[in-house]
Amino acid sequence: MVAGGVFTVLFVVGLIPRFAGKTDTARYEIFYEECIIAGSVAGCLFSVFQFPYKIGQYMQKLPMWAYQSLTVTVLVIIGVFSGMFVGCLALAIAEMLDSIPILARRIGFRHGLGIVVLAIAVGKLVGSLLYFCMRIFETAQ
């Protein structure tokens, strides 16, 4: 469910076409979108179903120096890509928030724009608190 929401936000905000345009790789835009969809589907499958993968058992057979260096390398790679993803998503959301005043001016909405943005933020906060306080994130085993 979360992965579906994430790639919906990515497509609505138009992050993929913007990055493809900035890097002059617009001809690969459909490939980029397909990779994001495949990753989201794989993420959904791995989070919903329990696949028996035994990577740790194979890594423990390595010498200690190889095990530690491989672990650090994998963590650095995951950290770099996670940071890039979070940064891009934050910038896309910030640009979407920049469009709220433009929309308000076009539809003639003059007063109370700050209240609307605050209401959106409070709604997100209340939703997050309910999610964690009511333990909705726990799944039945």
Description:
The structure is a single chain. Helices cover about 80% and strands about 0% of the residues. With about 140 residues, the chain is an all-alpha fold. Helix 1 (about 1-15) packs antiparallel against helix 3. It starts with a helix and ends in an 8-residue tail after the last helix. It has 3 domains: about 1-50; about 55-100; about 110-140, no CATH class.
Helix-strand category: mainly alpha
**Which whole number gives the mean pLDDT?**
80
Distance between the termini: 18 Å
Query: Quaternary status of these chains?
Result: single chain
Tell me the radius of gyration: 21 Å
Beta-strand portion reads under 5%
Bulk shape: extended
The residue ranges in which pLDDT falls below 50 over 5 or more consecutive positions are none
Domains counted in the coordinates: how many? 3
For the report, how would you describe the main beta sheet? Answer: none
Count of DSSP E strands? 0
H and E string: HHHHHH
In DSSP terms, counting alpha (H) and pi (I) runs of 4 or more, how many helices?
6
Percent of residues in helices: over 70%
Short synopsis of the structure:
This protein has three domains: 51 residues; 45 residues; 31 residues, no CATH class. Helix content is 79%, strand content 0%.
Topology record:
Blueprint: H1 2-13, H2 15-22, H3 29-48, H4 55-60, H5 64-107, H6 113-133
